[in-house]
From TrEMBL:
<dbReference type="Pfam" id="PF08238">
    <property type="entry name" value="Sel1"/>
</dbReference>
<feature type="signal peptide">
    <location>
        <begin position="1"/>
        <end position="23"/>
    </location>
</feature>
<dbReference type="InterPro" id="IPR050767">
    <property type="entry name" value="Sel1_AlgK"/>
</dbReference>
<dbReference type="InterPro" id="IPR006597">
    <property type="entry name" value="Sel1-like"/>
</dbReference>
<keyword id="KW-0732">Signal</keyword>
<protein>
    <recommendedName>
        <fullName>TPR repeat protein</fullName>
    </recommendedName>
</protein>
<dbReference type="InterPro" id="IPR011990">
    <property type="entry name" value="TPR-like_helical_dom_sf"/>
</dbReference>
Length: 465
């Protein structure tokens, strides 16, 4: 009994001491901060402490008066909250520190806004006092890219914020390939193909002719960009000057894929000038197929192509698939012939399969056929296929949503050398993985992306070191 009385007395005395400590900290931010650091150290060492580090850091951050203390206390408070998963409150603390001039917190805000984790309540103020200085002093290429985005989208305005091109050019000077591509794309949208080619050349690892052919293809077919025949035509003009045969072959493929509906006469001219004669069949067959008045007439047109495609002719398979797509044909036949075309070497069939898979009805035979074909391409190292499957599993569609499968396909794209996938996988594993093991893997992929010149990966790694 005496032992219990002594123990209870000791507990009352200890709690009283803690209460006195907290009371003393209420008016003393320095004491609150030091007590918080001690409590955090004790917790990490496995020693229980009655003090609440979060409350103590909150007191220190809210009562700090000197610039140095405001920076330090709010920065450390933000880090603690972030570790606890309290992201919104953490960024509020980082914002206070950054507005007081803390460069580390400023970089966190830049990265947070780029990643979509942070949106300032007063964007103009944060941009003026945090983003703009970070971009001007050249310490952060991410800040230059963010300024370009904010100005380009009209989210901030004023002479102090300059222009989108100004910040992109600064980012290019800091070594950003992303900014170089954005400048090139901006010139494309303005119709200045000469300037676009010059900007691409500054960051490209491919030849000028390969770039011209690529841009002509993506704008004719709308692959990852809004389809634009005018821009595609201009790039094709560049391509045919640099690689006549390559331009002719591309013109033939585009004509077959689109049935001659996009810049058909010009594509025929480019193909013919290069000695490529197999341009017209699909266009003629499509027109005749649409004009046929009976099913028997349509079947008579299609049967020779089906025999050829079923015998392994990839050209015939692609023509058939496109005819069925354009005339509302069977989903199962479209999936079948796109698969045959791709296996036969028609790489352009993959984008069509991906597009149709994204719209396919779950459980249908065509959805399964498309999935198997796209998965086979992803397993053979196709980055677009792997990324498409990762996106599908992230939200569901032809297959149910599955985080593990989404991450597995993203990892295949990353392992195939895709810098964007390496960065996205690294961030996902670091932020949402199971802890130490996943974070180690995350760092590996982020380092791979950074080594390939991704500024966001480099910036992200710095925040985690």
């Amino acid at each position: 009994m005496a032992h219990r009385i002594k123990a209870n007395a000791w507990l009352v005395m200890l709690l009283g001491t803690v209460g006195l400590q907290l009371a003393a900290c209420q008016g003393n931010p320095g004491a609150a901060y030091q007590n918080a650091k001690v409590s955090i150290a004790h917790n990490k060492a496995g020693v229980k402490t009655p003090n609440d580090p979060e409350k103590l850091l909150s007191i220190a951050a809210s009562l700090a008066t000197s610039k140095r203390d405001i920076q330090q206390y709010n920065r450390e408070y933000g880090k603690y909250l972030l570790e606890k998963g309290m992201r919104r409150q953490a960024y509020q603390a980082f914002e206070t520190a950054a507005l007081a001039g803390d460069s580390s917190s400023a970089n966190r805000l830049v990265r947070g806004q780029v990643d979509g984790h942070y949106r300032p309540s007063n964007l103009s103020k944060v941009t003026q006092q945090v983003y703009l200085p970070a971009a001007q002093n050249g310490s952060s290429v991410s800040a230059s890219l963010l300024m370009a985005e904010l100005v380009g989208k009209g989210q901030v305005r004023g002479p102090d914020f300059k222009t989108e091109s100004y910040w992109l050019e600064r980012a290019v000077a800091q070594g950003s390939t992303t900014a170089g591509r954005e400048l090139a794309e901006k010139a494309e949208r303005a119709g200045n193909i000469k300037l676009a080619a010059s900007n691409y050349a500054k960051t490209d690892k491919i030849s000028k002719s390969a770039r011209a052919l690529r841009q002509a293809r993506v704008y004719y077919l709308g692959q990852g960009v809004r389809q634009n025949t005018k821009i595609a035509h201009a790039w094709m003009n560049v391509a045919r000057r640099l690689d006549k045969k390559g331009a002719g072959e591309l013109a033939a493929r585009v004509y077959r894929t689109t049935g001659g509906s996009r810049d058909g006469a010009y594509l025929q001219e480019v193909a013919s000038a290069a000695g490529i004669s197999n341009v017209l069949p699909q266009g003629r067959i499509t027109r005749d197929y649409r004009a046929a008045k009976t099913e028997a007439e349509r079947q008579a047109l299609i049967e020779p192509l089906e025999r050829s495609a079923d015998g392994g002719n990839a050209d015939a398979a692609l023509i058939l698939a496109n005819i069925y797509i354009q005339t509302g044909g069977s989903d199962d036949k479209i999936a079948k012939y796109l698969g045959k075309a791709y296996v036969g070497g028609k790489s352009e069939a993959l984008n069509l399969m991906i597009t149709r898979l994204q719209r396919a009805r779950a459980g249908s035979p065509s959805a399964e056929a498309l999935y198997q074909a796209v998965a086979a391409a992803g397993n053979r190292g196709s980055v677009p296929a792997a990324r498409a499957l990762s996106a599908m599993y992230s939200i569901g569609g032809a297959k149910p949503a599955n985080v593990a499968e989404s991450r597995r396909w993203l990892r295949k794209a990353a392992d195939a050398g895709d810098t964007k996938s390496q960065y996205e996988l690294g961030v996902d594993l670091y932020e949402n993985g199971d802890g130490g093991g996943d974070q180690a893997v995350a760092v590996k992929y982020l380092q791979m992306a950074a080594a390939s010149g991704d500024p966001f990966a480099s910036s992200y790694l710095k925040t985690k070191q």
